[in-house]
From TrEMBL:
Its EC number is 3.5.1.1. The lineage of its organism: Bacteria, Pseudomonadati, Pseudomonadota, Gammaproteobacteria, Enterobacterales. GO terms for biological process: asparagine metabolic process. Pfam families: Asparaginase, Asparaginase_C. It comes from Jejubacter calystegiae. Residues 6-198 form the L-asparaginase N-terminal domain. Substrate binds at residues 62, 95-96. CDD domains: L-asparaginase_II. This is Type II asparaginase.
Length: 327
C-alpha cells in the first residue's frame, strides 16, 4: 500500500464537522465540532484510495474565517505541496465562505498538485449527511494525476467545480455550489473523476501572487448598492483607512448619484474602488464616465480576495485592472 498517493486533509470546520441534537435537524446546529481524525475515521473507504494524514487548522463556522487564517492556510498548503512525499491536499471548510478561501488559494498556491475543497450542507449527525461521500470524492479527485494543473477545485455533490467560478447559490440544498455561466470542470461517477473542461483564467503556478512570506493582507471592504444607498458607508470606509472598496453594484455595476459621490471621495483619499455586481452573474463592463475599476465576472466576495492580493503588489489602477481581466 506504500504506492498509494499521499493526501493531506486540512480541516477548518463548517457543517461537515457539525453536530446537531437529532438526526432530522439541518439548521441551527453547531458548526466545527468534530475533529479531523473523526471525520477521516468515519470514511474507511478512503483507505482504498490514498494514504491520508489529518491536520486541524481551525474548527469554526466559515462565517468566522479571517484573512489571517486563509493566509496561514495558503502558506501551510505551499509547504506541504513542496514536499516530494505529498501528492495533493484536501481542505474541509464551511460552505458559507468556502468560495473566498478557495479562490485565495487558487491565486496563491505555487504547485500543479491537486488542491480540493470540500464541505457539507447537512451536519454529520443528520440522516443522509453528505459529508462522508463529499470527503471521499474530494480524496478521489486529489489522488487523481489527471486533476493536476486545473487550479483549486471544489468537490461537493458528485461535481468538480473551479474555485474561480463556483459559488454557494442556495442557502440549504445539497447542490448549492454552482457556476451558471461556466458550469463544472467535471463529475465523479461511481468513484471515478471525469474531467470535461479547463479554466482559461490564470491560477496557481502561473499566478504572480506569492504570499509565502507575507505577514498581513490589506484591508478591503464591500459596500452594497441598492435604492437610496447612503453615501456615509463610504465615509465610514475612508475614516477606517481601508485599502480598497468593492462596490457590489446594482445590475451591470450601475452607480447611484450618492454612491458616485462616495466613490469619488474614496478615490481622492487614495482608496482603490472596484465595481462588481450584486446579480451574481455576468461581466461588469468598463463603461466610460463610470467611476472605479471593474471586477470582470468575479462576485463581490471574490473581487475582494483579488483586490487584497493586487494591493500587495501595486496601487496602480491600470495594473490592478489588468489583474481583474486576467485572473
Ligand atoms: N454548510 C456549512 O458549512 C455552513 C456553515 N455555517 C459554515 O459555513 O461553516
Amino acid at each position: 500500500a506504500t504506492t498509494q498517493p499521499h493526501i493531506v486533509i486540512l480541516a477548518t470546520g463548517g457543517t461537515i464537522a457539525g453536530s446537531a441534537a437529532n438526526t432530522t435537524q439541518t439548521s441551527g446546529y453547531r458548526s466545527g465540532e468534530i475533529g479531523v481524525q473523526t471525520l477521516i475515521n468515519a470514511v474507511p473507504e478512503i483507505k482504498n484510495i490514498a494514504r491520508v494524514d489529518g491536520l486541524q487548522i481551525a474548527n469554526i463556522g466559515s462565517e468566522n474565517m479571517t484573512s489571517d487564517t486563509i493566509l496561514k492556510l495558503s502558506q501551510q498548503v505551499n509547504m506541504l505541496l513542496a514536499r516530494d512525499d505529498v501528492d495533493g491536499v484536501v481542505i474541509t471548510h464551511g460552505t458559507d465562505t468556502l468560495d473566498e478561501t478557495a479562490y485565495f488559494l487558487n491565486l496563491t498556491v505555487k504547485s500543479d498538485k491537486p488542491v480540493v475543497f470540500t464541505a457539507a450542507m447537512r451536519p454529520a449527525t443528520a440522516i443522509s449527511a453528505d459529508g462522508a461521500m463529499n470527503l471521499l470524492e474530494a480524496v478521489i479527485v486529489a489522488a487523481d494525476p489527471n486533476a493536476r494543473g486545473r487550479g483549486v477545485m471544489v468537490v461537493l455533490n458528485d461535481r468538480i467545480g473551479s474555485a474561480r467560478f463556483v459559488t454557494k447559490t442556495n442557502t440549504t440544498t445539497l447542490d448549492t455550489f454552482k457556476a451558471p455561466e461556466q458550469g463544472y470542470l467535471g463529475v465523479i461517477v461511481n468513484g471515478k473523476p471525469q474531467f470535461e473542461t479547463r479554466v482559461e483564467k490564470i491560477h496557481t503556478r502561473r499566478s504572480v501572487f506569492d504570499v509565502r512570506s507575507l505577514r498581513k493582507l490589506p484591508e478591503v471592504v464591500i459596500i452594497y448598492g441598492y435604492q437610496d444607498d447612503p453615501e456615509y458607508m463610504y465615509d465610514a470606509a475612508i475614516s477606517h483607512h481601508v485599502d480598497g472598496i468593492i462596490y457590489a453594484g446594482t445590475g451591470a455595476g450601475s452607480v447611484s448619484v450618492r454612491s458616485e459621490a462616495g466613490i469619488g471621495k474614496a478615490e481622492k483619499a487614495g482608496i482603490i474602488v472596484i465595481r462588481s455586481s450584486r446579480t451574481g452573474n455576468g461581466i461588469v463592463p468598463a463603461d466610460k464616465g463610470q467611476p472605479g475599476l471593474v471586477a470582470n465576472s468575479l462576485n463581490p466576495a471574490k473581487a475582494r480576495i483579488l483586490l487584497m492580493l493586487a494591493l500587495t503588489h501595486t496601487k496602480n489602477p491600470e495594473l490592478i485592472q489588468n489583474y481583474f481581466n486576467a485572473y
